[in-house]
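Hello,

Our lab assistant flagged a job as stuck in the queue for most of the afternoon. It eventually completed. Since we weren't sure the result was trustworthy after the delay, we are filing this so someone can double-check. Below is the sequence as submitted and the structure that was eventually returned. Let us know if re-running is recommended.
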Amino acid sequence: MQSQPWHQMSIANALSTLETDLDQGLGLSEVGDRQQRCGANALTPKEGKGAIIVF
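-- returned structure --
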């Protein structure tokens, strides 16, 4: 578990915490493992009208 908010971490500390590499990212097998463990990296759309549509 992270000890401080992400925006306060150094890049090196965040990469280490996430167990990834800045230049290469995650390998395909690691992506699959993390998707199974954590779910898809997707936002859930909210229902209703957006602020621009209401305006």
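-- support follow-up --
The delay was a queue issue, not a problem with the job. The result is valid. The chain has a mean pLDDT of 86. The first helix runs from residue 11 to 18.
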